[in-house]
Design a protein that fits this description.
The protein is mainly alpha-helical. About 65% of the residues lie in helices and about 5% in strands. The chain is globular, with a radius of gyration of 22 Å. InterPro entries: ATP_syn_F0_a_bact/chloroplast, ATP_synth_F0_asu, ATP_synth_F0_asu_AS, F0_ATP_A_sf.
């Protein structure tokens, strides 16, 4: 009887609500898009643009403050691309790899730091863009297009000859690998970010004060690692596509 009374009280005065898979849809002609993903993605883009403008507004020969931080980030991304792609060919790919890393990094951290769920929508709820499978699949497909373009631009149609090396028996496996690469990238990022948000949300529901704080700190660390993994693998795939086979 006490359990029934407790359930009746909770239904009448819900303390928290956790939903998965609810979306705010925008209809643009015959196209239906996830509105909340666009909203949070625009916020992430705005943060990156504002930070870039602030860091380059008054460039000094001896950098300090935000300019120093942004130059450090640029050097870090250059080293990442150079180590994975190669010293001779990495420069044109720094903007692509850097954009992937910075967007995913800020998007992941926004899910850990910004209380998106406090902003009420007509339906669905706001969350980090990378906690939506559509965003991560889009990044993975862009990566696939990038490494195909890299291979074809360097080797021409001879790029496809690498599928039969060192033996034609490996041809179906290498074709299958091109499909599993973007899938593994997208599901790894999506699964980790969504799981982190759900764990924090459940802990806030159960123990709303101190317990979620260590988990949130761990989420910030894993979010940064996931951005690094995605950018590193993307650069590695590009480097592999341009690698000479002997």
């Amino acid at each position: 009887m006490e359990i029934i009374d407790g359930l009746a009280f909770y239904n009448a005065f819900p303390l928290a609500e956790l939903e998965v898979g609810q979306h705010l849809y925008w209809h643009i002609g015959n196209l239906k898009v996830h509105g909340q993903v666009f909203i949070t993605s625009w916020v992430v883009i705005a943060i990156l643009i504002i930070a870039s403008i602030a860091a380059t507004r008054n460039i000094q020969r001896i950098p300090s403050g935000l300019q120093n931080f942004m130059e450090y980030a640029l050097e870090f991304l250059r080293d990442l691309a150079k180590n994975q792609i190669g010293e001779k060919e990495y420069r044109p790919w720094v903007p692509f790899v850097g954009t992937l890393f910075l967007f995913i990094f800020v998007a992941n951290w926004s899910g850990a730091l910004v209380p998106w769920k406090l902003i009420e929508l007509p339906e669905g709820e706001l969350a980090a863009p990378t906690s939506d499978i559509n965003t991560t699949v889009a990044f993975a497909l862009l990566t696939s297009l990038a490494y195909f373009y890299a291979g074809l631009s360097k080797k021409g149609l001879g790029y496809f000859a690498g599928y039969a090396q060192p033996t034609p028996i490996l041809l179906p496996f290498k074709v299958l690998e091109d499909f599993t690469k973007p899938l593994s990238l997208s599901f790894r990022l999506f699964g980790n970010i969504l799981a982190d948000e759900l764990v924090v949300a459940v802990l806030v529901l159960l123990v709303p004060l101190f317990v979620p704080l260590p988990v949130m700190a761990l989420g910030l660390f894993t979010s940064a690692i996931q951005a690094l993994i995605f950018a590193t693998l993307a650069a590695a795939y590009i480097g592999e596509a341009m690698e000479d086979h002997h």
